[in-house]
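Moderator note: this is an archived Q&A kept for reference. The question asked for a predicted structure of one protein chain; the sequence and the answer are reproduced below.
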Amino acid sequence: MDDLENTSELDPATASPLITVEELAKALAGEQPPVLLDIRWQLSAPTAGQGGAGGSFGAAEYARGHLPGAVFVDLDRELAAPPAGAQGGRHPLPDPGQLGVALRRAGVRGDRAVVVYDGGPATSAARAWWVLRWAGHPDVRVLDGGIAAWRAAGAPETTEVPAPAEGDFTPVPGGLPTLDGDQAAELARTGVLLDARAAERYRGEVEPLDPKAGHIPGALSAPTFENNAEDGRFKPVAELVERFRALGVGGEPVGVYCGSGVTAAHQALALAVAGQPAALYPGSWSEWSNDPRRPVATGAERG
């Protein structure tokens, strides 16, 4: 975002990937408002496949009310490729060509800022932020607190579906770093690999979605929702810095994973807010646990 000059009403010198309700309202009233993407979604059963309960939930919520001018983007269909088990997990990275079609349909341009939001606390919005940044878009922000914060501020909503002009953005993957399974395993030994799932899944006590319970040996438990305050917004920068410092972040390469690369993007976003770059393992546990060659650790320790 720092390198994008004079292309939107958002201040490109602002380092944070987050935007407040007040900042967004001001930007939307400007001469070059950002493109707004609604990414509401909920985790669906692993058998639901593409466009299952997750996308249906988001589309229904969008129809009931959304930010004026926002276009709905389906996480399952448009921000991920079809599930691929041991070759990519439940939410593989999208095909760049198909991603470009979806983003241009939503009006995304390479020279115009994008703001993404969900229902809070930015889990699916973080996936959109990460995918767009990975695809090379230089200016993407996440509405802190999502539509819940927008509503709490008394800001307007609509049920009108916009018809944006066709965008021109062409994805060029590589804007953010990724890990494959071997690289994640190596990073767990030589750097810091954070597991963003709930602690009980990390410990192997429960596993509601994937074939094996446990974690990647050497990974550290760092439940992603500990990045948020009670109101669904991210904790202040100083608190996030301290949280990650306590997990050993600082000076060594950092990687993140979760079940399928969604909440890991939220962890990567929190790390970015704290000023710490991180690589994301897109296949995450859903890929790792489907591969019989991969070792599994259980318990509260790194393994």
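Archived answer notes: The chain has eleven helices and nine strands.
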